[in-house]
Every structure is written in structure tokens, then in C-alpha cells.
Write a structure and sequence with these properties.
This protein is an alpha/beta fold. It contains twelve helices and twelve strands. The strands form two sheets. The chain has a seven-stranded parallel β-sheet, sandwiched between helices. A five-stranded parallel β-sheet has the order 2-1-3-4-5.
Amino acid sequence: MKPKILVTREVFAEVLAFLGEELEVDSNQADIALAPEVLRERLRDKDGVMCALTDRIDAALLAAAPRLKAVCNIAVGYNNIDVPACSARGIAVTNTPRVLDETTADLVWTLMLATARRLTEAEAYLRNGEWTGWYLKQLLGADVHHATLGIVGMGRIGQAIARRALGFEMQVLYHNRSRLPAEIESPLCARYAGMDELLGRADFVVLQVPYSPATHHLIGAAELAQMKPSAVLINAARGGVVDDAALIEALGRGTIRAAGLDVFENEPRLNPGFLALKNVVLSPHIGSSTHATRLAMAMTAARNLVAALTGGTPPNRVNPR
Ligand code: GLV
């Protein structure tokens, strides 16, 4: 008998076909997030689950799924999963690292450029019929080239963001749990800095840290006050790393120039305060969303799941065996 799995959200047909070779697949191709009680019911007899960051996999859910051996997230972040609770039950947890690094770095740069050059504000102005002609001081923005970029969290995605900055001849500061070796720093022309220095000097502060209790509200009112009034904050990492209410206040007061945000507290119910602000560029958690990358992420999760349930070693296990 094939092991039984649940795929909680819509995935590409080739991914379902791959899974179906080895596993008995129950899948939610309607692509509406399963209500917690429906998820619990459909996991009751499953050996594995391929899930998304919209699925909360907690201890209560695990208790109702006694056969579960693998939880394979289609995301690099896995703060939607109670990993210690999985480990306590011997359940493998996997993520999808690497395949999304470059695509996510592109989106961060999209937000940086769009925010600096007020692109969404400019487009709204044009669409609203407000454009009556060219004038010298029209929609003045900020330069990205030769500015100082401060990256908080210099993992693979942070490094991909820094690599792009070379072409813009930016100065790159970074802050990380630990300083990177010279072989990584040197080609990126990146200099390690304390958080205070980075916040005080950067023209663009880019957050690229995972969400955890340690990074909850890493950027709040005090940190925003440390930034330059001309600075821009970019967050395409996780909601909750920024205190959204404090950011809305800071954007409204002009404590900082602008923000570019792909992630929010309480997604998808973002704080309505953002919608009233012109100096924020917003996108709906699409950092990794290109066809090629989302397919690669889903295939990575599928390979992890097949390995976990057929006696192999899942390549991207995040908890110890
Ligand atoms: C997306 O947010 C991811 O963690 O992959």
C-alpha cells in the first residue's frame, strides 16, 4: 500500500503526477485554504502532508494525525509549523531553501526601486487623470545608485540582494547573527556593522531574517527613530519582524521616507493604515512568485515528502532525526 498524503493547496499538475507515482494523494486543488477543522479531518489518516505557510501545523493538529511522519512546507520559512512538537513525535519537517533565493532578491529590488522612485504613487496619479504635463519637481524620488544599503540578515537571499547592489555601486552594510567569512564579504564589498550603525547610516534598510520570537518586532518605533528621515525600509521576509502599527505611524509622521512591503502582520488582513499612505509600496507576499520558482519550490517539497515516506533522507530536513 502506498503511503497516504494530503496536499493542502493547489500545486502544478506535474507535481501531483510525481507524488502520485509513489504516494496516494489527497489534494485540495480548489485552492482555498482549508479551515483548521477540515485540515484536521483530512490529516487524520495521512502519513505525510505537503503544506503552505498559510497552514498552521501545531501540536493540537499533530495529536489528531497519529500516522503523520513528514510535514513538507512549500516555503523556505517554516514559522507556521511547531517544529519542536513535530520533533517530539519523530515527524520530519522540511522546507525549500535555495530555489527561491534569486527570485526573492529580484522582488526585494523591485520594491527598493519602486519605493525610491514612487512608482505606484506615480502610476495612480496617471491613472487618476491627474497628469497635466511635465514639470521639474514632479514626483521627486531618491537615488538608489551610490546609496548605502543595509541588509539585516545576510543568508543566501541577503547575499543575492547584495550581489545586485554591486551593479548600482552601492555601499553595502550588513548585520547578521555572526560575521561572514572574508571569502563571502569581499566579493560582495559588504561590511559587517552593528545594528545601531546600520540603522543610522543606511539609505535602504532591507530585512531578510526569519520570523521567530527573537525577531518579533525587530523593527519597532525605537528602531524606526534611529533611521534617517530620508531612509526607506523594505520587508519581504516575514510579517511580525516589523511592528506594523509603529511603521504606519513613522510613515505618516515622516520619521522615515517610505517603505516597500511584501509581508505583513496578520496576513492577509493587513493594517488598513497602510492603504491611506502614499509613501508605501505594497505587494501580497509574492516574493518567490514566478512560475519557474514556485514550480521548483513545489517539486522540492514533493521530493522531500517522497524521500521521507519511502525510506530515504529528505534533502531539506530542518529538524534533527
Ligand atoms: C515565503 O515566504 C517563503 O518562506 O518561502
